[in-house]
Amino acid sequence: MACSATAKFIQPLSINSARSAENPDSSSKFLSASSFLGSKSKLFSVNKTASPTGRRSAAVVAVSSDVIKGKKLKSTSSVANLLITKEEGLELYEDMVLGRAFEDMCAQMYYRGKMFGFVHLYNGQEAVSTGFIKLLKKEDCVVSTYRDHVHALSKGVPARQVMSELFGKTTGCCRGQGGSMHMFSKEHNLLGGFAFIGEGIPVATGAAFTSKYKREVLKEDCDEVTLAFFGDGTCNNGQFFECLNMAALWKLPIVFVVENNLWAIGMSHLRSTSDPQIWKKGPAFGMPGVHVDGMDVLKVREVAQEAIGRARRGEGPSLIECETYRFRGHSLADPDELRDPAEKAHYATRDPITALKKYIIENKLASETELKSIEKKIDEEIEEAVEFADESPVPGRSQLLENVFADPRGFGIGPDGKYRCEDPKFTEGTAQV
Ligand SMILES: Cc1ncc(C[n+]2csc(CCOP(=O)(O)OP(=O)(O)O)c2C)c(N)n1
Ligand SMILES: [Mg+2]
User: Fold this and answer.
1) Closest C-alpha to ligand 1, atom 21
2) CB 189 within 8 A of CB 141
3) How many angstroms separate the CA atoms of 50 and 44, rounded?
4) What are 3-42's pLDDT values in tens digits?
5) Topology (CATH) of 79-391
6) d(CA 111, CA 212)
7) What is the pLDDT of residues 87-98, one digit of tens each?
8) Does any ligand 1 atom lie closer than 6 A to the CB of residue 265?
9) Kind plus residue range of the DSSP H or E element containing 289
10) For the chain, domain boundaries
11) Element (H, E) at 41
12) Which residues contact 68 (CB under 8 A, 6 or more apart)?
């Protein structure tokens, strides 16, 4: 039978030591015991038909930061993987609070008319950005989507530069020419911000190819890794499959990070894809596929550590499906009337920031007061970012044609050597070329 052949092909993966090789069924236990996954039952019924043997979960890597509390793990290497120090805990907390506070401020500024075009916020998904990006080196690359502000912040682009970009000001990270969906910073190796879905995946694959080429052909000392972030809806797009193929074929140092927030605008993930378990597409191309609770930054971090390490060691790509949820509408223009209030309420109880805070306090990594002082510091940083953006100048008209033509002479620049757009009559009627 075709389905059992498929089940046979999907082999257990070596990406994560927490998935027990001694107990191959532990992954299915993890899934069924999990209080997570609002979509769990539906996902399961879909897969019962696809794989009646139940072997479909063989490649799921079950990771659990819960075990940290009990410290009951026998393998010391796994324990070492799971533990976070106070400094690490506070770094994760600060980054997630920064992402959340920044996005909340964006909503305010958008409704006050300070930003233009579509603005897509990241609230609820912070554990994914933080869990992955805080493990990177500056030289590593990140490729994002239109929901990109928080990836930029996690990668170290200063909040004032991101806010200024959103305000369309010259002090923004793209000098005001990109806006919300096109964050880019050469200095931080943030390669965008892409408005077309799936558009960033080939760019990320190319960046990973560059690293491999530098290392293997040019013999440079280069172990850089690229992270490609994209959504569940994007996984139905051809570029996703083409890039998985190339990445596996050439063993590229890349991690494909799917932020499965269960929705693509108003289209449910379960209604739009033949097999909702996206992680399974990894093994189909010969790379590890992992499903992780994307509302738990420690679990995400653990999986990320393995995948990034694997890429850095030259062992090839991984596909990580982080199941998460966005707490706001698709964009700030979306009234968010399609999603079931019960589903929203379910995920609201799983707020990744509240969960980390609880973990930090319960494990005595830091006190409530210490966390409050981080929140206060972030609030000040965001206020300062808004002031900075507000006071920054708008780009000059001549900037309109920069980065549009390799040589703007003949179009943007007239015979007198001046930018045509500087002529006050430039926008009256059709400019003569
Ligand atoms: C090539 C292309 N087709 C269609 C769109 C319109 N579009 C914008 S967002 C979106 C849904 C993407 O959903 P998902 O990948 O799950 O990301 P999320 O918004 O949930 O983060 C679509 C279809 C687009 N931007 N690009
Ligand atoms: Mg989505």
Assistant:
1) 231
2) yes
3) 10
4) 333 332 233 223 332 333 333 333 333 333 333 344 433 4
5) Rossmann fold (3.40.50)
6) 45
7) 999 999 999 999
8) yes
9) strand 289-293
10) 2-59, 79-391, 405-433
11) helix 40-50
12) 82, 83, 84, 298, 363
Q: Which atom of ligand 1 lies closest to the CA of 145?
A: 21
CB 36 within 8 A of CB 350: yes
Q: How high does pLDDT run on average in the chain?
A: 82
> Which residue reads 């560059």 in tokens?
210
Q: What's the CA-to-centroid distance between 65 and ligand 2, angstroms? A: 25
pLDDT of residue 34: 36
CA of 289 to the centre of ligand 1 (A): 22
Cα 184–Cα 105–Cα 343 angle in degrees, nearest 5:
95
Amino acid 428: pLDDT: 63
How many angstroms does the Cα of residue 206 sit away from the middle of ligand 2? 24
pLDDT of residue 424: 73
The residue to mutate among 265, 271, 324, having the most atoms of ligand 1 within 8 angstroms of its beta carbon, is: 265
The reply to whether ligand 1 has any atom less than 6 angstroms from the CB of 233 is: yes
The number of beta carbons lying within 10 Å of the beta carbon of residue 358 is 11
